[in-house]
Specification:
alpha+beta, Immunoglobulin-like, Rossmann fold, Jelly Rolls, 7-stranded parallel β-sheet, 31 strands, about 25% strand
Length: about 700
């Protein structure tokens, strides 16, 4: 029997949570929320997303950014486009300054929503807003310490940062290290950095381990990499380039340097400085998608895994140092997918600010992941999830996590995908076709396979490789995690690490909803019943799983299991439970004013990736008052007897446990008999053998 043992254990250890019965009728929704709706990818525009951009400044009176047709407006939370402007170094995209107009052009790629409706320069993420950090003055580029830029961005709620600048060295610098320190301490930070335009090795700080270095491509459908685009591998032999984005002849906003001109000029520029905000703008759509669909702000690792999963090939099917994973496209998310983010929390900004908000403070106030979804893996820990591939579609699994800066060993989280027919694929092991190799587990030890030393890795299986595969198991194993001595903590000196995971080509992992219970008729609150009582219910399981139903009468001192009302039925049915007081409750001393019906319904969800779920409720209290026609005896309980009954009912569900067990046994027989109807698409091992 598939769920008997698990359900019994759950019932033993879980107290009965009671829903508010209302007044007229009782309709209890499942314990989980409603099914997630399909996303309309065409309507994503970055709404609600804040992007930080550090550059030469911004021409705020441009049609892309000013607050209205006639008013530039003051930067702030209510401004149409500019949430914050750091003008401590300079306050405008100023004529005569080094690379004048560069910042306005980049900002336009990120968030231009022109008041004159010029669709030619409207940003992909035109619904987003900006934190603008002007880091160029009359002396040239004067960026502050990068952790200060990132702390300011986080203070204003920006996860995505766009930097189209760097130094003329391929070395891993102090600035590269600060980026990696920051992103390890604050996982809700992702920095897009231009690698340079020298046609050779990528320049700092785009070589930071956790940065997104963006190569430039042309904008054609059959894209090619711009020959002058800098690229990987980085100085440490890692892939370096993460993705490629259009960066050739990109039309965007043109600054004029005049603060009151209310201009709307445009012009084209080419370079990785343009490709970088293009990739950041695309990622704003991914952030919006996760926030709308799942209700939380994605971490940097999750966004990186989604970026890699979305990418379409430019130079080849497999990731390489020239294209990275390729050019991002929302088309990848037109199929079924799910994500998992260890760092899923309700309010990431409060967590960061609660730790001090700056890098030094966060180092001194480490976080153990409390309040987050998890898991956070220490060395030798593992996490796995079973999923069902979509028939006829490729399967792509992408894992991403942050690395500590140079000087620390890079953690090694391994990604394996195991199939129901005994094969296994290992992260980043691609054939010439661009798909992962599959090995038989009986003759292959995946953990002994050499790691690629990358912190974003992928397994890609073709639909033909998945023929006759009923399920796959996705497994993440922490083969090696640095132990900084802070047990149970995240961050640079912690011993645990979280991750982001994107899986494309599987049935979406929705939480299993418990059966919906609706009271059609039943005892009225405060009513008095002297002969019999009837409770009528409607039961519907949204996933069309079969349902076990158990009912009892209870009061504050003891309960009566109604074995005749226990049912094991198909997913949709009505139930009528009638109690003859004189026959079924006597000789108990029943005269009380605090009687109620308590109902438990458990579904028999059969998939290995989704557990059963339970719904429960109680009616309002009512009175049972029965008098023996032969004689009347006061309903007086012996104090010792009442104490004993209280002890016997300390656990609210003990009384119903026997009924559930019996019902589940009956259910297992019924489920086996009807299995051909409701499990026709789910083969072994989903059906357990007797």
């Amino acid at each position: 029997m598939r769920v008997v043992t698990l359900v019994i254990l759950l019932i033993i250890i879980t107290p009965l949570s009671i829903a508010d019965p209302g007044t007229d009728s009782l309709s209890v929704e499942p314990q989980w929320g409603e099914e997630l709706s399909e996303m309309d990818l065409d309507n994503l525009n970055g709404t609600g997303v804040i992007i930080a951009v550090a550059d030469t400044g911004i021409d705020m009176d441009h049609s892309c950014f000013r607050d209205s047709e006639t008013d530039v407006g003051e930067p702030g939370i209510n401004h149409r486009k500019i949430v914050a402007l750091n003008d401590s170094i300079d306050n405008w995209d100023t004529q005569g300054h080094q690379q004048f107009r560069h910042g306005t052009h980049v900002a336009g790629i990120l968030a231009c929503d022109p008041l004159d409706n010029n669709s030619d320069i409207k940003s992909m993420s035109y619904g987003s807003r900006l934190v603008v950090q002007d880091i160029v003055d009359s002396t040239g580029w004067s960026p502050p310490e990068v952790d200060n830029l990132l702390a300011e961005a986080a203070l204003h709620g920006a996860v995505i940062n766009s930097w189209s600048w760097g130094d003329n060295t391929i070395n891993y610098t102090n600035r590269s290290g600060l980026i990696d320190e920051w992103t390890v301490e604050n996982p809700w930070s992702l920095i897009f950095i231009a690698p340079g335009n020298n046609g050779g090795g990528m320049l700092e700080p785009s070589n930071a381990y956790n940065a997104v270095s963006v190569a430039a491509s042309n904008s054609e459908q059959n894209a090619t990499i711009w020959p002058s685009s800098s690229h990987g591998p980085d100085v440490n032999g890692r892939r370096g380039t993460f993705v490629a984005s259009p960066g050739v002849n990109i039309l965007s906003a043109k600054a004029d340097g005049i603060t009151t001109s209310m201009n709307n000029g445009t012009y084209s520029m080419t370079g990785t400085s343009m490709a970088t905000p293009m990739a950041a703008s695309f990622t704003a759509l991914l952030q919006e998608m996760i926030e709308n669909k799942y209700g939380f702000t994605p971490s940097g690792p999750l966004l990186k895994s989604m970026l890699a999963a979305s990418a379409e090939p430019v130079t080849g099917m497999s990731p390489d140092p020239i294209q990275g994973y390729g050019r991002p496209s929302l088309e990848s998310f037109n199929t079924s997918f799910f994500v998992h983010d260890s760092y899923e929390v309700d309010d990431w900004v409060s967590i960061i600010q609660g730790r001090g908000g700056d890098l030094d403070s966060m180092k001194n106030n480490p976080w153990n992941g409390s309040g987050a979804k998890g898991p956070f893996l220490s060395q030798n820990d593992s996490w796995s999830r079973y999923v069902k591939p979509v028939n006829g579609e490729d399967l792509e699994v992408t894992l991403s996590y942050n690395a500590r800066p140079m000087g620390y060993d890079i953690d090694d989280l391994r990604l394996f995908v195991k199939t129901s027919d005994g094969r296994v694929a290992v992260d980043d092991q691609f054939s010439s076709s661009g798909y992962s190799q599959l090995y038989y587990q009986s003759a292959f030890s995946p953990l002994e396979h050499e790691s690629s030393n990358e912190t974003t890795v992928m397994v890609r299986l073709s639909s033909s490789q998945l023929e006759d595969v009923d399920w796959v198991e996705i497994e993440i194993v922490a083969k090696s995690v640095f132990d900084g001595g802070s047990e149970g903590m995240l961050g640079i000196e912690g011993d645990s690490v979280g991750f982001g995971l994107t899986v494309i080509g599987v049935h979406e992992l929705l939480p299993n909803n418990g059966p919906v219970l609706t009271m059609l008729s039943g005892p009225v609150g405060g009513g008095n019943y002297t002969e019999n009582i009837t409770l009528e219910l409607s039961i519907m399981d949204l996933e069309k799983d079969n349902v076990v139903l158990a009912i009892r009468l209870a009061n504050e001192n003891y309960s009566v299991d109604l074995g005749d009302c226990a049912l094991a039925m198909n997913y949709s049915f009505n139930s009528s439970c009638s109690v003859d007081i004189s026959k079924e409750l006597i000789p108990r001393k029943v005269n009380r004013h605090d009687w109620r019906f308590e109902v438990v319904a458990v579904d028999d969800n059969s998939s290995v990736w989704t557990r059963y779920s339970m719904s429960q409720f109680q009616t309002e209290n009512f009175t049972i008052w029965w008098e023996n026609p032969a004689f009347v005896e006061p309903d007086v309980r012996v104090p010792g007897e009442e104490i004993m009954e209280n002890k016997q009912n300390d656990t609210l569900l003990w009384g119903i446990l026997g009924v559930i067990i019996g019902a589940l046994v009956a259910a297992s027989v019924m489920f086996r008999g009807s299995g051909a109807n409701w499990q026709e698409d789910v083969k072994s091992p989903f059906r357990e053998e007797e």
